[in-house]
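Lab notebook, page 48
Experiment: co-folding of the full assembly
Goal: obtain a model of how the components sit together before planning crosslinking
Operator: M.T.
Materials (sequences as entered):
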Amino acid sequence: MFRLALKMLYGDRAKYLMLICGLSFCSLLMTQQSSVFCGLMLWTTATLRNVQAPVWVADAKVEQVNEAVPLRDVEVERVKSVPGVQWAVPLYWNIVQARLPEGSFQLVQLTGLDGASLVGRPGKMRVGRVEDLRLPGAVIVDQVAVAKFLKKGIQLRVGSTFEMNDREARVVGICETQRSFLGQPYVYTTYSRALEFAPPQRKQLSFVLVQPAPGHTPAEVAARISQLRGLRALTEREFFEETIWWYVKNTGIPISFGTVVILGVVVGVAVAGQTFYLFVHENLRFMAALKAMGARTSTLAGMVLLQALTVGFIGYGLGVGLAAWFGNAVLKGGEPPFYLPWQVLAFTGGIILFICCFSAAIGMLKILRAEPAMVFK
Amino acid sequence: MNPGSDFPAAPDSGIDPGPGAWAVRAEGVVKTFGRGDTEVQALKGASIDARCGELLMIVGPSGCGKTTFLSVICGTLGFESGRIEVFGSDLRTMSTAEVTRFRGENVGFIFQQFNLVPHWNVLENVSVPLLLAGAKRSRAEAAAAAILEEVGLGKRLKSSPRELSGGQQQRVAIARALVHQPRLIICDEPTAALDAVTGHKVLELLRSVACDRERCVIVVTHDSRIFEFADRIAEMEDGVVRKVHGRGEYHAQYV
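Observation: model returned without errors.
Model output:
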């Protein structure tokens, strides 16, 4: 009977296509918007991936990675004294103004790494070597800097120079980074040189990066460091989650994307629900005939559910496929942001499943209420 | 009283076929639709008996309760009072699920508007009662093909019902009603959507393939052109069976 239920569905091409289109659109809208939202949220935590460390130590008041409340340099030593810390290094991170040779300015994310270890170094170099950061005035810029400078008519390459805080910075390498929420390019240098490039402040240390000793977990070490007065230590994962939640709670981004997602759900429920209702209504006579011929209610309910789930599955596949294609083909440049994790697929799948079950329930209700005797009318 | 049953004989039936031969026995059936001001009593104590091996027609003016009575007899509609036995099973004592199963096993339906699913081919439409009974597709389709051969549609197995004439569609409906070998065939105005010649042919076919010693055919109709096919005709009026006529009696008297 289930094969015949599907034939019944495919036979009514107009409604079948309408259901597929409605659910595909709903699925596309939800997946695409959720993926853009996830992409944006990833952008907010780009620094955590561009400067990798198992444990991040910051001022106790810091809530997310994009706000750095300066610490005293001695905090590095305090952190080093905590049991379970293998090493701890300073990190400077701040947004500073770079002056280009032709006189214009560009805001950059100045990232100062520990000069001895270069912990937090860029993961992938396009040109040059990270070790060259130890050369006088050396900086490594990312691909975003190259693109931004190019827009201003400057071709950044190894050997190019620009100024920060009236000090000359010489490009010794070009790296690849993940784009950040604010969109400013990353400029890597050593910690001590970063302090020269940055406007002077009483306290300059942004974060302390920590490696737990063997046999100690990052969470355990972070908990111990957090007991030090005025410091807050988080594992990379915790900092990632706290940063995202900060943006969720403190910005209008979720509302804006949530509205579109809700719109997608409403459109899906309205289009799929109504169309499926019409489909069942038009076939009610045949369903009642089947009922009269001895079809059990569970059989008829199963048929309706199968029909609803089939269009849901196809619509979901098409919608998600289109969203993925959109993400891969159209947004290759990385703008707007797009990140499609399995959670988004599961979320969209769950909503589509809900819509299908809701539509099927309406149809089933109609069939349950139908007297088999209606076939004689 | 009839032997083997505590069921009283229906008035005016004049038939006492002996034990085990009754297909349907209905006594004092009352059915009401609506409530309060909109209440309509469609059946006001209708009674009828139908035997195995006979083709019984229920006739009467529009609104007299023919279709309601038919619906109640085959268990597709409940009733308030009275008693109905179909092949010895009392419908009132059965649960909805039991009645549904009973219908699936024992009753075949032929509807006025055929009710063939347009998206299924002829073979699939006919195999449905067997599939509903749990038969495998191959067996159901083999049985469907055999019965379609019998009704003269052996070459139209893969056709859509839309491609068939009204007469052919009703033949498909007859095949569907018979494919699972039910003992009771219920026909609601089987010729209403057909012209006179086609209607005649359909009834001829119905008589030839459906009527046998083990089976009872009940036809609700107001088409006087097919009265001649009836073994008996029950005349209904205002929710009750007024009189049951023997073969040829009603035809000779009214047509």
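Interpretation: The beta strands of chain A are 55-59, 85-99, 105-113, 124-128, 138-142, 161-164, 167-176, 186-190, 207-212, 231-235.
Next step: discuss with group before ordering constructs.
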